[in-house]
Amino acid sequence: MIAAVILVALIVALAYCAAPVLVWTVGLAAWLAAFQFVFHCEVHAAVWAVFAVVAAVLNIVPLRRAVFTGPVFGVFKKITPAMSQTEQEAINAGTVWWDRDLFSGKPDYNRLLSFPDPKLTPEEQAFIDGPTEQLCAMIDDWKITHELKDLPPEVWQFIKDHGFLGMIVKKKYGGLEFSNYAHAKVVTKIATRGGTAAVSVMVPNSLGPGELLQHYGTEAQKDYYLPRLAKGVEVPCFALTSPYAGSDAGAIPDFGVVCRGSYTHPRTGERFEDVLGVRVSWEKRWITLAPVATILGLAFKMYDPDHLLGDKEEIGITCALVPTEHVGVEIGRRHFPGGSAFMNGPTWGKDVFIPLEWIIGGREYAGQGWRMLVECLSVGRCISLPAMSVACGKLTSYTTGAYARIRDQFGLPIGKFEGVDEAMARIGGYTYQMEAAQDLALTALDNGEKPSVLSAILKYHNTERMRKTLNDAMDVHGGKTVVLGPRNYLARGYQAIPIGITVEGANILTRSMIIYGQGAIRCHPFVLREMKAAMANDGAEFDKAITGHINFVISNFVRSLWLGLTCSRFAKSPKGGVTAAYYKRVTRFSSAFALLSDMAMFSLGGSLKFREKLSARLGDMLSGLYIATASLKRFERDGAPKEDIAVMSWAVENALYDVQVAMDGFLANLPSRGLAWVLRRIIFPWGLTLKPASDRTGTKVARALMEPGGTRDRLTHGMYVPKEETDPVGVLGHALNAILATDPVEQKLRKLARDGKFKTITARERLAEALQTGLINQEEFDAVTRARKLKRDVIMVDDFDKKLEQHDDKLLQRLIF
C-alpha cells in the first residue's frame, strides 16, 4: 500500500513538473528498485526487461525516431492541413509575449509583474496637457456631426500644425516620435470629446502610409513623404478593402500588370517615357480619409505575365503610394458612417500606370504587401480601436456615475436602485478591464514586441465592451440620451458602435477564427515547431517537438486534475492578500486551457480550423485569462489601492467566470463525447464552482462612480473634462459637487415638508419660505438654488424648430452628393 502511494505521488510530481524523459526513467527505475529491495516485493525479470526496452526506446534518440516518432511524423505530414501563403504570412507576422505564458499552463507571474509600467515622458505629457487639451476644447461634436458633417477648417489646421498626424513619425523626419503608449493616450483623450476628430487623428498614425514607410520604405520615399506626413502637408489614406473582399482581405480583386509605359509626374510635371511599371485597376470602399487624401496607399495583386521582372507570373499582394492627383485616380465622394462625420469614402481607377518606384519599399518589396500589412496591423490593432473603446469606458463612467447621483426618482438618486446599480457596475468593471488590457499590450509594443494575438484580443474584446458600456449608459440616462442635440454626449458614440465592431477585422471573424487560430499555432510551445518540421521534412526537429509535446500534455492532464480537486488552493501566488486566490485560479485555468487545446487538436485534427464555434470558445478562454492577468497587473501598478479592490475584483472574477463559461460550452459541444466526459471530470471534478462578481461587489463599484474619489479618478484619468458649466459634460462635475454639498440641507427640507412645517406647495416656494422663517440661512439658500439650477441643466434635453429635419436632409444631401 505504501509503495503504491509512493508510486502515485512520484508520477504526479513528475507529471506536474513536466519532468524530461530521462528524469521519468530514473525516477521509475528507482521506485522499481525500492519496491524490490526496500519493500521486499518480487519484481519479475520480465518487468525489468520491458522497462529497459521502453526506457531505451524513449531515451535513445535514433531508436525513438525509428520506432515511435518517425511513423508518427509520416502520419502528421499527411493529416496536417495545407496553409495558403496568406495564412502562413499571418501566422508568421508579429511576436508572442505574455500570451505564450498563458498557453503554457504555468504562467510566470514574476515575469508579468516585472514588465515595466507604461509611462509618459515629460514631452508626451506636455503634449497631452497642451495641444491635445486645446484640440479637445475646439471640438463641438454636435456641430461637426449634425451641421458641418466634417471637422471645421480651423480644427483640421490645428491638427496639422501641431503634428497630430505625425505622432509615429521619427523626429529626424519632423515627427513627434511618441511611444505607442502616448499615441494611445492622445487618441483616448480626443475620443472622449469626439469620435470624428479621434478617427481623423488615429488613422494616419495607425495602419497606413506612415507606418508602412517607416518599416519598409526606401530612403528616397522616407525622405520625401515622412516630413510631409509629419507636418500635415500630405493627408494619407490606405485602400485595402473592396466591395468583394472585406474580412477576406487577401482575396482583393484589384490587380496590376507589369508593363512598360509613360506618365507625367503629378507633382513636378516631368514627363517619363517607356519606363517599367504597373498598370493598376481598383475599386475600393470604406476607406477612411479617402475623400480628402493627397496620398493614396494602395493594395493590389500584382502579375507579371510577360516576365519583365523574372520567372514568376503571380507576384502577390503589393502596396504602392500614389498621389491622388495622378491621372486616373478617382476620389472625392464619401460614405456617411453612422453617427460620425469622419471622412470616409470610395476610390477607384482603371488602367492607371504607376512606376515601380512608387511601390512601398521599391521593386524588391513587390509581392510582400500582405506580410507588411499583417505585421503593421498587429501594432495598429493594439492602439486605435482599443483606445477609442477605453475612451468610451471613461466617458460613460464619468457621465453615468455623475448622472445617476444627480438624477433622482421616487425620492432617491437613481444610482441607488439596484437595477441601475447593476448596469453601473458593468460600466466601471469593463472600463477597468479595457484599460488594463490595452496598457499591458502597449507595454509589449514599447518594448519592441508585435503581439499579433493580443492585438486580436484587444480589438474584439475592447470594442465589444465598448458596445456593452454604451448600452448600459444609454439605459441609465434614459430620455436624457434618447433625444439628439448638443446636450447629448452619448448618442453619437452609440450610433457609431457598428463602425468599431466591423473595421480592422469584423468581430465575428476575429473571435471565431483569428484569436485562437493564430494563438494555437503561435503561442503553443510545440505546435508551430511541429508544423515547421513537417513543412521542412525535418524528422530530427519533429522528434524533439513531439516528445516535448507529449510531456506537455501529460503534465497539464495531471496539473488540471490536481488543481481542480484542490480548487487551486496549493498553487503558487506571487502576492498575498486579496489577489492571491485570483493568481491561483488563473494557474488552474491556464493548465486546463492548455489541456483542452491539445485535446481539441488531437480529436479534431485539421478540421478544428473549420469548427469556428469551438475555436471561438477556445479564444474566449485565452482572452479571459489575458484580461484577468492584465487587471491584476494594473492593480499592482496602481499601488494596490484599497479603494480599487472592488473594481479589480469585479474585473478579475468576471473574466475568470467567462473562462469557465467558455470551457463548459466547449465541453458540451466537443464532438468526441467520451473525451468530453473525461475532460469534464478532470477539469471540473466538483462542478462549475466559479461565480461572477457578487451583487455586493457590484454595488461598491457603482457607488465609487457616483461620488468623487480615488477609484473614480483612476477610471476616468486621461479623459477631457471641460471646465465650463455651460458644457453638457462640464456641468456634470459642478452639479455633482453642488448636489453632494447641499444634500444635508435638502434632507432637512424634506423632513420639514413631511412634518408639515411649510404653508407653500412648490419646492421653490418652500425654499424661499425656509429662508424667510429662519429654517435655513442665506448661504444655504444660495447653495441649494445653484445646485438645483445645475441639476436642471443636467437633466434637460434639446428641442428644435419643427422644420429642422427637412433642413438637415438637404444639408446632408448637399455635402455628400
TrEMBL record:
<keyword id="KW-0812">Transmembrane</keyword>
<feature type="domain" description="Acyl-CoA dehydrogenase/oxidase N-terminal">
    <location>
        <begin position="139"/>
        <end position="232"/>
    </location>
</feature>
<keyword id="KW-0274">FAD</keyword>
<dbReference type="InterPro" id="IPR036250">
    <property type="entry name" value="AcylCo_DH-like_C"/>
</dbReference>
<dbReference type="GO" id="GO:0050660">
    <property type="term" value="F:flavin adenine dinucleotide binding"/>
</dbReference>
<dbReference type="GO" id="GO:0005737">
    <property type="term" value="C:cytoplasm"/>
</dbReference>
<dbReference type="Pfam" id="PF00441">
    <property type="entry name" value="Acyl-CoA_dh_1"/>
</dbReference>
<dbReference type="GO" id="GO:0070991">
    <property type="term" value="F:medium-chain fatty acyl-CoA dehydrogenase activity"/>
</dbReference>
<dbReference type="GO" id="GO:0033539">
    <property type="term" value="P:fatty acid beta-oxidation using acyl-CoA dehydrogenase"/>
</dbReference>
<dbReference type="InterPro" id="IPR013786">
    <property type="entry name" value="AcylCoA_DH/ox_N"/>
</dbReference>
<dbReference type="GO" id="GO:0004466">
    <property type="term" value="F:long-chain fatty acyl-CoA dehydrogenase activity"/>
</dbReference>
<comment type="similarity">
    <text>Belongs to the acyl-CoA dehydrogenase family.</text>
</comment>
<dbReference type="InterPro" id="IPR037069">
    <property type="entry name" value="AcylCoA_DH/ox_N_sf"/>
</dbReference>
<feature type="domain" description="Acyl-CoA dehydrogenase C-terminal bacterial-type">
    <location>
        <begin position="521"/>
        <end position="800"/>
    </location>
</feature>
<dbReference type="InterPro" id="IPR015396">
    <property type="entry name" value="FadE_C"/>
</dbReference>
<feature type="domain" description="Acyl-CoA dehydrogenase/oxidase C-terminal">
    <location>
        <begin position="367"/>
        <end position="514"/>
    </location>
</feature>
<comment type="pathway">
    <text>Lipid metabolism; fatty acid beta-oxidation.</text>
</comment>
<keyword id="KW-0285">Flavoprotein</keyword>
<dbReference type="InterPro" id="IPR050741">
    <property type="entry name" value="Acyl-CoA_dehydrogenase"/>
</dbReference>
<dbReference type="Pfam" id="PF09317">
    <property type="entry name" value="ACDH_C"/>
</dbReference>
<protein>
    <recommendedName>
        <fullName>Acyl-coenzyme A dehydrogenase</fullName>
        <ecNumber>1.3.8.7</ecNumber>
        <ecNumber>1.3.8.8</ecNumber>
    </recommendedName>
</protein>
<dbReference type="InterPro" id="IPR009100">
    <property type="entry name" value="AcylCoA_DH/oxidase_NM_dom_sf"/>
</dbReference>
<dbReference type="InterPro" id="IPR046373">
    <property type="entry name" value="Acyl-CoA_Oxase/DH_mid-dom_sf"/>
</dbReference>
<keyword id="KW-0472">Membrane</keyword>
<dbReference type="Pfam" id="PF02771">
    <property type="entry name" value="Acyl-CoA_dh_N"/>
</dbReference>
<keyword id="KW-1133">Transmembrane helix</keyword>
<dbReference type="InterPro" id="IPR009075">
    <property type="entry name" value="AcylCo_DH/oxidase_C"/>
</dbReference>
<keyword id="KW-0560">Oxidoreductase</keyword>
<feature type="transmembrane region" description="Helical">
    <location>
        <begin position="33"/>
        <end position="58"/>
    </location>
</feature>
